[in-house]
Amino acid sequence: MPRKTMIEAIRDGLDVMMERDKRVVVYGEDVGYFGGVFRCTAGLQAKYGKERCFDAPINESGIVGTAIGMAAYGLRPCVEIQFADYMYPAYDQLTQEASRLRYRSAGDFTCPLVVRMPTGGGIFGGQTHSQSPEALFTHVAGLKVVVPSNPVDAKGLLIAAIEDPDPVIILEPKRLYNGPFDGHHDRPVTSWSKHELGEVPDGHYVVPLGKALIRRPGAAVTVLAYGTMVHVALAAAEETGIDAEVIDLRTLVPLDLDTIVESVKKTGRCVVIHEATMTSGYGAELVTLVQENCFYHLEAPVARVAGWDTPYPHAQEWDYFPGPARVGRALIETMEA
Amino acid sequence: MANSAPLKFHVPEPEVRPGGTPDFSNVVIPEAGSVERPPVDAEPESIRKLAFSIIRVLNRDGEAVGPWAGSLTDEELTAGLRHMMTLRAFDARMQMAQRQGKTSFYMQHLGEEAVSTAFRKALAKGDMNFPTYRQAGLLIADGYPMVDMMNQIFSNERDPLRGRQLPVMYSSREHGFFTISGNLATQFVQAVGWAMASAISKDTRIAAAWIGDGSTAESDFHSALVFASTYKAPIILNVVNNQWAISTFQGIARGGSGTFAARGIGFGIPSLRVDGNDFLAVHAVAKWAAERARSNLGPTLIEYVTYRAGAHSTSDDPSAYRPKTESDAWPLGDPILRLKNHLILRGIWSDERHKQAEAEVMDSVIAAQKEAEGHGTLHSGGKPSVRDIFEGLYEEMPPHLRRQRQQAGV
User: Fold this and answer.
1) SS (H, E, C) B94-148
2) Per the confidence metrics, is the pTM higher than 0.80?
3) ipTM exceeding 0.85, yes/no
4) What distance in Å separates residue B329's CA from the closest CA in chain A?
5) Are B395 and A51 inside 8 Å of each other by CB?
6) The pLDDT of residue B1
7) Number of CB pairs < 8 Å for A and B?
8) Which one, A215, A270, B154, B235, has the greatest CB density within 10 A?
9) Under CATH, domain B44-313+326-379 is a member of which superfamily?
10) In what residue span(s) does the Transketolase-like pyrimidine-binding domain sit (chain A) (predicted)?
């Protein structure tokens, strides 16, 4: 089977759903004729026509606001925000409208909407093209939040999101678009064509929302990660020689707590990692859940590794990014604690 | 330096404040019947002046005059009068119910009854309104049961929204009434999306967006105009200019543009101003815009010039920021009185019939209220379930909410 990049996998997922379901419409900035700045929608306008895939004005609240109206009408809009950093004008629409239509109308209106946005750093994007705002979404009642870490999941989660009856935010780690990235920026870039998770099945399949996956079974310590940090965690385990169990959360809301609790009860240790800033990040929620559910099994304090609590700097990108060295240190400290 | 004079900061002020004499001399009121009625496919550039005038049908004598007259039959007009009277009676009873502690909050329509009731009659079944909190006339004119509105206001055991929403934030897909958010302007752009979806689906249904003068300042208003203009969405963009946004006069949102309708001109959207207290004019203009939308001619922006005669809500006291007599001085009069006089002149109505209709309407409102109160009010009687807090956020309840529901003991 020919292997696909994450970009090709996402495009394939959109293609499969546009083919299967006439209600699926795709739009966003540069999404139509050109096919998106990351090329995730390339060819879709030519294949499905301008009524199903089109360019939008540079107006994120308008993109999401109109998509909410379309979803309420009965379509299945899947819109792109060009960078997660650009989503703030749409935040009001997502947090107070999309998330609440079903609830406030007691099911009279619903919002089956998907909003895709590239997230995270690693491409020298500076402050405005590197952010990881997932915690701003996980804090909102009524949204679902997904972060894929590889092409197979990216397609399967996307299809699950489009078929979901409620609004889903998909944060696509842009540094993973073209290849798995373990944080070693000074080593040659690897491609998904050399990775088994680039082997994307053809046609329709679903990776269900709310199901984590153990990427590396281990007995010593549990690492909770998602997106790019899954690959960083795997590298850190390899390099420290610590037998870490790496869990790829895949969906942050709803969260697969059972898989987490089972693992931490087994290992007795836990390190939580994400690229987003530390304070009030999603890691704080994970640490709390581990504490609430596994306290009497813990043999060490639960550790966090995250981006520093500053804006994402440009030139110092690799001093900011929580790479395998920082994660490895946390693993060693947690084992020694 | 060519000019060293200090810069001046400008903050618009209304003509009059409490204690002053109301003055609407700045509101230019054209004669009824004097504004042209262009064909629906007129070039937007050719009808720009409609954004700066006021389309009126009923003149001072109560006659329907000019090119916009004649869009309604006798039966439709008497029904319209009854809808406005019902809305006013409904408001009076619910305002009182709030004062009696039967609900936490209410918002009335006093003086603005024509806008939503007349507009509803220009739409067809299946069209979708995205209303604000001051368009309950859309429901009343479409026959939505008053008792269901009251059940929502009282947040009782029959509340269709299960106690989750602030009073008056109704929802009825069946009656073409989108769930009201309570936030301002957000729904204006959603309505455009709904209209785009209808066009994408090759449907025949159209959408109507609603916003007040104050919230046109929100960026969502601008977003809506961009998308409506770009995609020629089949939509009517309604701006209800009732002069006041809580305590803030309309000049703060309007700024330097002459009118709110004028906002549409830069987008190439045909934009009209209409006498919002003239039932016939509101209907005629809405019908014109609906025909445009349904004929693939794209969006229309309508500014309804009216006056919020009551308080913003039950939490507001307008005497703190405007003269108490300002409402009486409003030059476009009272919409119910104006339609009543027109129907009398037309020979199909009388003072006696009006009195009788008032009594009938009040009886029906009181009967509905009695029935609704039988199902509970905010602090007494039947209530929505505590389980309703947790249910219906997602189609399928996720594990974390199931755990929290258990913690709540329900």
Assistant:
1) HHHHHHCCCCCCCCCCCCCHHHHHHHHCCCCCCCEEECCCCCCHHHHHCCCCHHH
2) yes
3) yes
4) 39
5) no
6) 59
7) 144
8) B235
9) Thiamin diphosphate (ThDP)-binding fold, Pyr/PP domains (3.40.50.970)
10) 4-179
